[in-house]
Amino acid sequence: MRHTISVLVENNSACSRAWPGLFSGRGYNIDSLNVAPTQDPTTSRMTIVTRGDDATVDQLSNSSTSW
């Protein structure tokens, strides 16, 4: 099943590199990745499309990380 995950992230390069690493470190593929600015210059919106069952997406979306 295809899932779209949208997160607000700090607008810095470390965070932009870390999120895809979260997926690859767990062996999940990213079908699509988009990063766009928000009205807050310190925040970006990252939209990730991936495939997997509901348990996979729950594991990814419940991961707590901070940069």
Q: Structural class from helices and strands?
A: alpha+beta
Quantity of strands, as a count:
3
Task: Please state how the strands of the largest beta sheet are arranged side by side.
Answer: 1-3-2
Radius of gyration: 12 Å
Kindly state the percentage of residues in helix: 25-40%
Distance between the termini: 30 Å
Low-confidence residue ranges:
none
Strand count, sense and barrel status of the largest sheet are: 3 strands, antiparallel
The number of distinct helices, counting runs of at least 4 residues, comes to 2
**Large-scale geometry:** globular
Give the amount of beta strand, in percent.
35-45%
Mean pLDDT: 81
The H/E string reads: EHEEH
Task: Give the helix/strand layout.
Blueprint: E1 2-10, H1 13-25, E2 30-37, E3 43-51, H2 54-61
Antiparallel strand pairs: 1-3, 2-3
Can you walk through the features of this model?
- There is one protein chain.
- The chain is of the alpha+beta class.
- Helices cover 31% and strands 39% of the residues.
- A hairpin with a 5-residue loop joins strand 2 (30-37) and strand 3.
- The longest helix has 13 residues, at 13-25.
Brief characterization of the structure:
The protein is α+β, with helices and mostly antiparallel strands. Helices cover 31% and strands 39% of the residues.
